[in-house]
Amino acid sequence: MTDALDVAVRLLLVFVAFLVLPLVVGQTEHKVMAHMQGRLGPMYAGGFHGWAQLVADGVKFAQKEDVVPKDADRRVFQLAPAVALLPYLLVLVAIPVAPGSVGAVVDAGIFFALAVMGVGVLGSLMAGWASANKFSLLGGLRTAAQLLAYELPMLLAAASVAMAAGTVSLTGVLDAFAWWWVPWQIVGALVFFVAGLAELQRPPFDMPVADSEIIFGAYTEYTGLRFALFLLAEYAGIVVLCALTTVLFLGGWHGPWGDDGLGWLWTLLKTAVLAFVVIWLRVSYPRLREDQLQKLAWTVLVPLALAQIALTGIVKVAIN
Amino acid sequence: MREPTVVAAGYFDTYSVVGLLAVVGVLFVAVAFGAGRLLRPVVPTPEKLLTYECGVDPVGEGWAHTQVRYYVYAFLYVIFAVDSIFLFPWATVFAAPGYGATTLVEMFVFLGFLAVGLLYAYKKGVLAWT
């Protein structure tokens, strides 16, 4: 019975985190972007600095008419947002927050996280194809090209951490972590983070949704709740990417002091700082062209990731 | 004989939690869509159901022929990704006592293959754009 209760509490916590954290990131984005651009951002909803803006947005989305274009592939069109969103929920369960605090200890954690995250992109592809819209189709193709280019450096960078820790379990990585890993794996960390950004189609890698060229890419035809789920997926993706980078490269719950009691706080803090960087990049960098995207992935990130693997291998064997 | 059973049970326990969460997620989406159906208006008009192309009436089909310029990367990706998958099981044992230098050499052979592949693609002009 206690076991069942334990599992229920864990699932509840993961689910609540899944619903709340993306909204926090979204609201932070509103405010941070506004202040970086010399605006105030939302100020009205909820009273205090517009804290309830995204709740109001949610209410609005829920009341909007759900339009499925006549020519669209109806079932696929309607399912796509769910396919885009749910993988991030599943990844969240495997991310360790504090010593002993993890939704589920998945033995092949790194593998699980990368594999499941890859599924999320299928949602965009489904949306792009099923919309029967030329812009959506182009957006979908760009999404596919981007996934193909950036999945590989991400995989290689993660493999480097697995080599350093000698395990593919996320909790195992954190148990083996030592502070000098941060400079040792820093190249891998950068590659992983940049590749993750590209996979989430966040600026400056937002070619698949470039509004000045293809309206909103694969999501052009979506309205109301389904559109909201796509947006939620994007922000959940930011949370998952930042948390994964934290766990793999920045030591997760390890902090200057109080690992046992305050571990969760360190994890959240590092994740929040990375999320801030994600927002900052959106404000400061122009969009990369499709060929620049491909060039960055294949001629910079992949070689860097390979070099990181070589470095990790040499150091690891040398210290053993 | 007892221990393997326990290990297997733990393995399935883990993924049953993941499975349960997947069920929770599917329920969440189902409830959201169901509730949305009750909350929102349904007033379809022919114009509304038209494919959106900048406000102009759509020309031709949405599933148009497009030139997939990046298919070469799909090949590159498949080759490299399949290679990379094998890194993970190797990564967990390569520094174990008794392997050390041998596996390190293996790693450089592996990286060499990938690097040559990349270099070949580069020389063939696949990685250059105009």
Describe what you observe in this structure.
The complex is a heterodimer of chains A (320) and B (130). With 320 residues, chain A is mainly alpha-helical. Chain A contains twelve helices and no strands. Chain A starts with a helix and ends with a helix. The longest helix of chain A is centred in the first third of the chain and has 35 residues, at 2-36. In chain A, helix 2 packs across helix 10 (224-249) and helix 3 runs parallel beside helix 10 (224-249). Chain A has one domain (65-319). Chain B has 130 residues and is mostly helical. Chain B has four helices and no strands. Chain B has helices at 2-39, 71-85, 87-93, 101-123. The longest helix of chain B is centred in the N-terminal third of the chain and has 38 residues, at 2-39. The chains are: A mainly alpha (320), B mainly alpha (130). At the A-B interface, helix 1, helix 3, helix 4, helix 5 and helix 10 of A face helix 1, helix 2, helix 3 and helix 4 of B.
Low-confidence stretches of chain B: 1-6
Using the alpha-carbon principal axes, give the shape of chain A.
Answer: globular
Proportion in helices of chain B: 55-70%
| Helix percent band of chain A | over 70%
The topology string of helices and strands of chain B comes to HHHH
**CA-to-CA gap between the ends of chain B?**
64 Å
How many whole angstroms does the radius of gyration of chain A measure? 20 Å
Number of domains of chain B: 2
Largest sheet of chain A: none
Strand content of chain A: under 5%
Gross geometry of chain B: flat
**Average pLDDT taken over every residue of chain A:** 86
